[in-house]
Structures are given as C-alpha cells and as structure tokens.
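Protocol step 4 of 6: record predicted structures for both targets in the notebook before any analysis. Target 1:
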Amino acid sequence: MHELLARAMQGVDPDAPGAFWRVFLNLWAMVPWGALFWWNLVFVAVGALLGWWRGRFWEGVAWAWLLGPIGWLVLWLRTRRRSRAVPPPLPH
C-alpha cells in the first residue's frame, strides 16, 4: 500500500490547491488501459456470440459492453426469443 501511495503522491505538494487533481491523474496513469480495451473487446465478442445464439444479438452486445462477463449471465438467464410464426393465409 505504501508503494501505491508513493506512486500516487509522486511530484505532488499536498498543500497545493490542485493536489487532489494531480493525485487523481497519477492514479489514472497507473491503469493498464491497453489491457482493459482488449479484454472489453473479448467480452463484447462473447456477448455478441451468446446474443446471436439466444436470438438477441444487440442485447448481448449491450449487456457485455455494460457489465462484461456479468452481462453474459444476464443474457443467459433471460428467456430465449422465439421467432414469430407466420399465420396461415386466409381463405378467399
């Protein structure tokens, strides 16, 4: 924890007016954005596949984009969309 705090406070004067924002930006700089981006693409791809299989493609993409793997569970627990049956033609 000391190492994380030291990295967040690097180059920050705690008494300066913008100290909060400097610490905030230091913390955001430590986030592995590249890995998060690629993992999110994997989550959305699996959500799209599950959504396509369940008849809810765009819903699968949306749930996976918003919730990641938890969105897969949401999609899995919802009922499968049935295709609408076409009624027979009316007699003349």
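Target 2:
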Amino acid sequence: MMDVKVTLEQFLQLAHRRCQRSWAELSAGLRLSHNEFEYLRAIRDQEDKTTDKDNHGQHLQDVVNDLGVRKSSASAMVLKLEDRGLVARFPCRYDARAQHIILTEAGQALLASGERVYEAVARELASELPGSIARAFDQK
C-alpha cells in the first residue's frame, strides 16, 4: 500500500508508466500494438450506437472523431485490421458513400485479451491505494 502522500498528477504518471510497462510485457504474445488496440476499442464503442437513418454509427468518421486522428491514418489502420481479419466493413444503407466497420469474432477476442492487460494493471494499482480510495473504484 502507498504510504506516501502523492498528488493526483503523480498518481496518473505512475499509472501511465505501469500501463505502458504492463502492455509491453503482457501483450507481447497478442501480436497487437497499443495503437491497434485503441482502434479496436473505438470501433467496438461505435458498435454500441443505434444504427438508423438519423444515427448511422460505426463509420470511419466516427472512429476519427473518437480517436482524434486524421481520416487517412484511420483509413490505413482499418484496412490493416481488415487484412488481419479483425474488422469487417459493409455498405451503409442510409449513406452510399459510407461503410460500417464492425469487429469480427477474432477482433472481439483480441480486444478482450488487450482489455485484460488493463484489468491486471487496475488490480495492481488498486492494491496499492488506501482502502477507502480503492473501494471508490468499480473493481470486478
């Protein structure tokens, strides 16, 4: 347990370092970069949106907006993920110019594996927090 008072900034720096280190160690066997993980997560998050004529959801522009990247970068990454069988695209029935992007079963499984890295780091960090603060976080 942490016995020294730390600022929120110091805690965030510690958490960031732990996440980076843990990602490097625990994700090595996944063949998944952190950038790829972020795209898979953003695509999954877009899938949760209702898809109708007013809210098409899960288009490339939605992923661009979520991640704050350039459209050309997102397009290249989605193509790479599609070539690896992690995402699939299909035409939008409401906008002929757009395509929906969804995770395949392989993409869902790889994303879940990546999320377990963060779950492990969260448990480790929570074990070092004072009990009252640790309980404030929703732990599984």
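Step 5 preliminary note on target 2. The CA atoms of residues 82 and 88 lie 6 Å apart. The longest helix spans residues 105-128.
Proceed to step 6 after PI sign-off.
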